[in-house]
Amino acid sequence: MARSKATELSEYELQRQEKIAKNQELLRSLQLEAASSGLAPSKSRSATPSKSTKKKATPVKRVKEEILPRRTSSRLRGIVADSEVAKRKAEEEYTAVQEAERAKRQRVSDDLNLGDIVVGGKHWNQSGNFLVGVGPARPNERTFSVEDVKETTDKELKALREKMSGLELWEDYEPNRIKITPERIYSLGFHPTRDKALIFGGDKLGNMGIFDNSQSVPEVKAEDEDEEEEVEGPPITTLKPHTRTICDFKFSPSDYNVLYTASYDSSIRKMDLAKSVAIEVYAPADKSVDAPVSAIDMSHTDAHTIYFTTLEGAFGMHDIRTKPTDTETYQLSEKKIGGFTLHPLHPHLVATASLDRTLKIWDLRKISGKDEWRIPSLVGEHESRLSVSHAAFNSAGQVATASYDDTVKIHDFSGCGDWKVGMSLTDAQLKPATIIPHNNQTGRWVTILRAQWQLQPEDGIPRFCIGNMNRFVDIYTSKGQQLAQLGGEGITAVPAVAKFHPSINWVAGGTASGKLCLWM
Length: 520
Prior knowledge:
repeat; DNA-binding; globular; alpha+beta; 5 helices
């Protein structure tokens, strides 16, 4: 017969009371054991004290905690304990800490630019809207497609977009099969020859790979067609002319068999491809001196002088006919100069990009100052919100810069051929003519993105290429109009290092895995 609901509740209550009694008995036994072992409090307090024993709790006065200087050993510093020197040292340290803390809490009264005070989250872009921006990288997601080309109403722009968007990956090998360098690619050099795509790649350990697309794919024998074998990549010649990162390549303007390589190992080498020899043309006199070279360039009117910058902020000019140690250097920045170029038609003008967030234009026709303080004449400078990675001059006098503020800026100095010695540009003249939003947040494992112009385009229309974090290469005109977004199957990493052939519409891209992408 089923039990009533009241009976069930009564039994449950009995079980609960029994369990409570057992727990109380266990607690008493534990207290007795603690008392016998001396672990219990010396004075026992009643669980329910009488009114006579209760005392009103005295409120504890809160004392503001003072920040004390970090304790250091006076004995290790040779200071006698309790001496006047020790007391004075302690007072100085205490005062320094107090001043530092006071400075942190100091109110700022000046107007604040929101872009300058972002510490996390989305960045404040040029239009002042933090809800819109370049955003994080999204692999294989296009931001420019064939539809954008079709919708173009400008006939000339449409024709140019169709031409550049029509470039396709070299079909003989997929990009993931073309491993041009053993390690991450830091630089690419496109040989000026028009007969074939001859590309040089430099990696972070000083290796140089040479790729020649004229080499044919090996034929597969009939009996092997059914066998599934891993397809090998094209033959790559690998050299090691340097011991550290190869940061830049430059072909001699007078002899295309001569290639100059610059490296973080503080040297510049001249490689004669015909003679198969690489000689050191520049290096510090003292081998223990570490002065990593960051970029090199040459004038088309002078095949004997090579120009370079360093990670220490120096700019140098060296005549390769003299000793490697005979060179002129000028300290142009207190921080790293990441990249620079000479104006192709007016090589006395130099554009430098620095970690100090500036683009600077210099005139080599006027050198002022004394001894180590001698520097070229500063024509003008433009400051960005974050560091500027590279500054590239084209023959029309336009400078393209890529910055960590997620922009590509184009400055128009088309009238620079008429500049007089010692002149200075106004802020209005230095202001960018075009600003292109572009994700430049490469992080630690991807090589810094740089805008690189095509030196001598066949149609005369200036354009540049730059790697895209979504695993493409973007191509823009000097007006900021996007012409193409090159991609394709088999691209498994960001082609961060992008390079145009000097005259033909061929584009190369290098990845952090040492792979090469080639669009033709």
